[in-house]
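Retry 2 of 3 after timeout on previous attempt. Resubmitting structure tokens to design endpoint.
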């Protein structure tokens, strides 16, 4: 009887209620098979997933032994993974003698068992065990293949001299991987959910701009003096007077008089040395050289407080005017 070259193990995704699973590799006895049932959406476990012949499944061998069927006595659930593999004992129970009726069939059968055991052990050692690539040179037993016994929460690594494997205790033994990241000195292990805990910066730390061990969050990012603390874009005559968009401005901008506006900040500045910039223009500019179609934005210095400031919009002739399009922005030391 020739030996099938079909691979094992073989895997099946069960449908709801399925009981019969056909395999096509060679097995010489029903007890030569190992059958595993891994419930859907669970982690495989060779001990708890293995089934017991007769009480949990039966095997029907093909006449030439190159295949057969496994029948579960309890139907599978949808998505269960059924694994069929060869699990022959590495032993020989028969013995030739001059009175046993020695036949070619006996020799063939024993050679077949030898071949199957070789295939089975080659699969276990070559396909399911860590090993070096065939093309990896300079692999030595003493340096690369002898592993010390591990105690709980330890791991293997090559020693500093590069002469042998050693066991060591990782920096984190809480189930995560301790990472060293510049700027995140408080970083801990990565959790099973893929998260890492870091300490966020306070507004005072962002304001100081010297801390290198905390993370800046959007909530406090504007505290740094290099960031815009507030800005506003609004329209005026001949358009409707309205705030189009803004950030860091308390309520709506207030028009005090023609070309004069009061801006109140959501977060007060830390001193009176904050800066502003801006632009103002008519809705349609027909002549860029016309001094009344584009203008100048200027703070009224004697109105400055840490909470608010008045801003002028003037023509290039320095006359107060309501422009259709206006933008103001402010930056400085926050609180």
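Retry 2 succeeded. Sequence:
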């Amino acid at each position: 009887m020739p030996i099938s070259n079909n691979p094992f193990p073989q895997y099946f995704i069960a449908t709801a209620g399925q009981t019969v699973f056909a395999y096509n590799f060679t097995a010489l006895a029903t007890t030569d098979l190992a059958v595993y049932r891994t419930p859907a959406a669970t982690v495989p476990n060779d001990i708890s997933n293995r089934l017991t012949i007769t009480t949990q499944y039966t095997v029907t061998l093909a006449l030439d032994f190159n295949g057969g069927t496994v029948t579960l006595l309890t139907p599978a659930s949808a998505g269960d993974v059924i694994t069929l593999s060869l699990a022959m004992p590495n032993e020989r129970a028969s013995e030739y003698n001059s009175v046993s009726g020695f036949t070619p069939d006996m020799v063939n059968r024993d050679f077949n068992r030898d071949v199957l055991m070789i295939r089975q052990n080659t699969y276990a050692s070559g396909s399911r065990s860590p090993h070096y690539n065939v093309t990896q040179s300079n692999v030595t037993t003493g340096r690369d293949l002898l592993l010390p016994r591990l105690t709980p929460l330890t791991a293997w690594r090559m020693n500093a001299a590069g002469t042998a494997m050693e066991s060591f205790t990782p920096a984190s033994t809480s189930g995560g991987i301790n990472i060293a990241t510049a700027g995140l000195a408080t970083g801990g292990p990565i959790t099973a959910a893929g998260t890492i805990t870091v300490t966020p910066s306070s507004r005072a730390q962002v304001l100081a701009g010297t801390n290198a061990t905390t993370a800046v969050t959007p909530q406090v990012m504007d505290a740094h003096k290099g960031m815009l603390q507030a800005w506003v874009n609004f329209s005026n005559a001949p358009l409707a007077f309205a705030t189009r968009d803004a950030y860091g401005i308390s309520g709506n901008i207030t028009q005090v008089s023609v070309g004069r506006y009061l801006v109140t900040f959501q977060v007060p500045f830390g001193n009176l040395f904050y800066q502003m910039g801006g632009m103002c223009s008519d809705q349609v500019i027909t002549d860029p050289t016309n001094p009344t179609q584009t203008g100048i934005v200027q703070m009224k210095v004697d109105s400055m407080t840490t909470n608010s400031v008045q801003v002028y919009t003037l023509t290039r002739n320095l006359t107060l005017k309501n422009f259709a399009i206006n933008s103001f922005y402010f930056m400085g030391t926050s609180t």
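Attempt log closed. The first helix runs from residue 104 to 127.
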